[in-house]
Amino acid sequence: GAVVSQHPSRVICKSGTSVKIECRSLDFQATTMFWYRQFPKQSLMLMATSNEGSKATYEQGVEKDKFLINHASLTLSTLTVTSAHPEDSSFYICSALRGGTLGETQYFGPGTRLLVL
Amino acid sequence: AQKVTQAQTEISVVEKEDVTLDCVYETRDTTYYLFWYKQPPSGELVFLIRRNSFDEQNEISGRYSWNFQKSTSSFNFTITASQVVDSAVYFCALSEATDSWGKLQFGAGTQVVVTP
Fold this sequence. Notes:
With 117 residues, chain A is an all-beta fold.
């Protein structure tokens, strides 16, 4: 089956620093990727839709200047948490839509746990 | 507004018991997809099933079965003869055709605890 990887799997950083998380589709091209955030004991909330070669579309309430998304190739999307603060500590999960055709199942990455001290 | 409701926060069962997880959804679209995912303690989402709005046939896969009823906007999930390995959080999700295709709206999740 299709594989999506994320790097790093865990990251601890100091408050005020920036953290970049990579999402890669390993065996297929993904014109569309999604970034979700999951706080402890809560559900997954969509943060943004990442489209290759164009600007990301952010969900209401998500600061685009804080969560920078770059989808520069068909196999890589990156999420950069700028000036991270403790409240940004969360589990970040990406997913990739294979081929972008109607009804294709999303393939999720294993997630990245971010802890901001 | 919450479009996917999983009213059960946590269900505890003893091994070999059956457990049914409820999922109620809300949409005005005639074309949509419903999903179930399992999230074990490791955090990685495990895809279980996708069902499109035009296919109301129930499905069985091993110990798992799904009951899709458009009349009640429900897509319930049953684990038969539960095992300890079934302990996880289970999410129901909706993808609507009029929204950006592929965007998933998740329910709050149901924690299933299976004890030996």
